[in-house]
Amino acid sequence: MHYWKRIVAVLVLAVAVVTGANAAEKKVVWKLAMTWGGTLHPFTTSVENMAKMVETMSGGNFVIRIDSANRHKSPFGVLDMVKAGQYEMAHSASYYWKGKDVNLLPFTSMPFGMTAPEQYAWFYYGGGLELMQKAYAPHNMYSFPGGNTGAQMGGWYRKEIKTLDDLKGLKMRIPGFAGEVLAELGTVVTNIAPGELYTALERGTIDALEWVGPGMDIKLGFHKVAPYYYTGWHEPATELQYLVNQKAFEALPENYKEMLRVAMRVAAYDMYALNYHESAQAWSEIATQFPHIKIETFSPDIMNAMKAANQKLLKEMSDANPLFKEVMDSQAQYLKKVRVWTKMSDFDYLKDNL
Ligand code: CA
Fold it and tell me: Could you tell me the distance, in angstroms and rounded to a whole number, from the CA of residue 211 to the centre of ligand 1?
């Protein structure tokens, strides 16, 4: 009897190894920290979708528990928490880390840079993803695209911005490289956690802010205190990120790694579609519900000054940081090629069909 039991056990093991069933049954529980509060749809919904896909694909064996900023209380601490292994994953935006490591800045969106389809092409097929891993390697982390907002609105201003002088001394929340550009033009720039934006604007801690676009902005009520809503220049394709602790990822069975990669990629692209839909939907309602909102576009003078400041700062930062330069050169070369196609395809179609 004993002999037969051993034979059966060996056979079961052999079948499990051949089919991969053994690895698929490994129970893994991860924790993910979001920069966002628990109700910041669609960012939070996208993360929940990703975790649900992983759980379903693994037959309930790979579980990712999500902590919002309401729970861990450290919206901008998530990079350090993943680095330290306190969380295996985070959902955030790479440009928030410019103060820690400038090489992490260019993987969200750059002023006057690529649109979302162009940037996705760069990430997945134009070398962007490889450069992102190169930038994150010194931090023992991987970073993956985590959902795109599409072109963002330029922000909410209490007062109309008519000349460059109106930007001087203005206190504004604006992250990423765009913040550097506005600082160059005399704006007092700050970054504030998403959960505190409305209070900061309402109390006058800041005079202006940019957040995302109609779908997300209107729920936060900025229009009540700052009725001038400017079109964008600064974030033409904001890609959020999944940060993953390298050691934790490498310890996963191969099939779980693939489930995670696939779930992140699908959830990211789905958020792009969802946010596009919700911005269109929200704007169609806002335009009639809040007729006092004034849609403005920065004057050519202001735009040209922003472009000049952008070029100057890009050069300075590239001269001082070889990896930053490598990423910016890659983006610039890719943009040069891909924009010709964008113009021939989407742009030429749209200009005659608006
Ligand atoms: Ca933004």
Answer: 4
Query: pTM value?
Result: 0.91
Q: How far is the CA of 320 from the centre of ligand 1 (A)?
A: 26
Residue 14 has pLDDT above 50, yes or no: no
Between CA 120 and CA 145 the distance in angstroms is 9
Query: How confident is the model at residue 8, as a pLDDT?
Result: 44
Residue 174 alpha carbon to ligand 1 centre in Å:
7
193/36 Cα distance (integer angstroms): 8
Plot region of 59 (φ>0 → left; ψ -120 to 50 → alpha; else → beta) = left
How far away, in angstroms, is 194 Cα from ligand 1 center?
10
Assign 110 a pLDDT band (cuts: 50, 70, 90): very high
Q: Residue 252 C-alpha to ligand 1 middle, in angstroms?
A: 34
The tally of CA atoms less than 13 A away on the side-chain side of residue 73 is 0
Q: What is the pLDDT of residue 321?
A: 98
Domain 3-150+237-276 bears CATH identifier 3.40.190.170: yes
**DSSP result, 68-119:** -HHHH--GGGHHHHHHTTSSSEEEE-GGGGTTT-GGGGGGS--TT---HHHH
Give the Å distance between the CA of 152 and the centre of ligand 1. 6
**Beta-strand runs (E) in the chain:** 28-34, 62-67, 89-92, 141-148, 155-157, 171-173, 188-190, 208-209, 228-230, 239-245, 294-296
166: buried, middle or exposed (CB in 10 Å: 19+, 13-18, 0-12)?
A: middle
CA of 38 to the centre of ligand 1 (A): 18
pLDDT the model gives residue 125: 98
What pLDDT is attached to residue 248? 98
CA pseudo-torsion sign 177, 43, 257, 116: negative
Read off the tokens for 91. Answer: 């959902």
Q: What is the pLDDT of residue 6?
A: 57
Return the axis-axis angle of helices 43-57 and 254-289, rounded to nearest 10°.
150
Calculate how far, in angstroms, residue 125's C-alpha sits from the geometric centre of ligand 1. Answer: 25
The average confidence (pLDDT) of the chain is 93
Provide the residue ranges of all domains of the chain, joining segments of one domain with +.
Answer: 3-150+237-276
CB atoms within 10 A of CB 284: 11
